[in-house]
């Protein structure tokens, strides 16, 4: 298989060149670990590949700025400067929607981003809530390389994956992200409801010292 040209590689890793994208990056970069930041951006890059696989076009089926905002802020609930008073998916969705409204994004668009973030860890539900929810859910799942059950692993070639990982290295993403989720979950019982992802991660770490997802990621397509 022929590797991507410079032009196609540049297209693959290029972010939307808009003021909103710049504002989102400015918001999340200082308050997320480099590993979680890279995961958030890779989720967007993978989501665009899923969009191509599903024949979803920006401007027709989804807004690229909103896709970047939702992917980039999907883990804002574990950011170091957060209030940490709700489960991380909801807290991140609330913070993202507030951020967008303050920058003139419509209530309808902000709510669409809210849903995509709040449901990104809810397979079988996100897929029923429109194109943005579908793309965020599967972009995030793709970045785990298989353990979250993405149906679109084969939409990414090895060459595309290599280019994305060179631009945004993994840096032990699974461990770093789960560290942040568990730390946030441990701050309040309301942050870690039973059978929800943050609650189960916290209990698995307390019982076994690691989560099943961390173990599964070691043998996933991308590794940890």
CATH class descriptor: Mainly Alpha
* Rg for CA atoms: 16 Å
- Secondary structural class: mainly alpha
Any idea what the shape is?
globular
In angstroms, what separates the terminal alpha carbons? Answer: 25 Å
Q: Predict the CATH topology.
A: Hypothetical protein af1432
Q: Quickly count the domains.
A: 1
SSE topology string: HHHHHHHHHHH
Task: Give the helix tally.
Answer: 11
Largest sheet: none
Secondary-structure map with pairings?
Layout: H1 6-13, H2 19-28, H3 34-53, H4 64-72, H5 88-102, H6 107-118, H7 131-143, H8 158-167, H9 173-185, H10 197-208, H11 212-218
Annotation keywords:
11 helices; 58% helix; 224 residues; mainly alpha; Hypothetical protein af1432
What does this structure look like?
The chain is mainly α and 224 residues long. It has a single domain (6-171), classed as Orthogonal Bundle (Hypothetical protein af1432). It contains eleven helices and no strands. Helix 3 packs antiparallel against helix 4 (64-72) and helix 6 (107-118) runs parallel beside helix 7 (131-143). It starts with 5 loop residues before the first helix and ends in a 6-residue tail after the last helix. Residues 1-7 have low confidence and may be disordered.
Quick recap of the structure?
The chain has 224 residues and is mostly helical. It has eleven helices and no strands. The chain has one domain: Hypothetical protein af1432.
């Amino acid at each position: 298989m022929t590797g991507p040209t410079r032009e196609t590689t540049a297209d693959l890793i290029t972010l939307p060149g808009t003021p909103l994208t710049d504002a989102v990056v400015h918001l999340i970069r200082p308050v997320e670990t480099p590993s979680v930041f890279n995961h958030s951006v890779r989720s967007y890059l993978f989501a665009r590949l899923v969009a191509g696989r599903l024949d979803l076009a920006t401007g027709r089926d989804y807004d690229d700025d909103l896709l970047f905002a939702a992917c980039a802020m999907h883990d804002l609930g574990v950011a170091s400067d957060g209030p940490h008073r709700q489960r991380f998916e909801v807290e991140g969705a609330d913070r993202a929607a507030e951020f967008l409204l303050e920058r003139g994004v419509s209530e309808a668009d902000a709510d669409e981003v809210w849903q995509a973030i709040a449901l990104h860890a809810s397979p079988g539900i996100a897929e029923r809530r429109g194109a943005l929810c579908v793309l965020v859910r599967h972009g995030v799942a793709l970045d785990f390389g298989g353990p979250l059950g993405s149906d679109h692993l084969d939409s990414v070639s090895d060459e595309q994956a290599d280019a994305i990982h060179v631009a945004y290295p993994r840096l032990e993403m699974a461990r770093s992200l789960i560290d942040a989720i568990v730390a946030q979950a441990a701050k309040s019982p309301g942050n870690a409801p039973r059978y929800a992802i943050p609650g189960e991660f916290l209990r698995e770490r307390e019982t076994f010292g690691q989560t099943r997802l961390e173990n599964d990621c070691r043998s996933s397509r991308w590794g940890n």
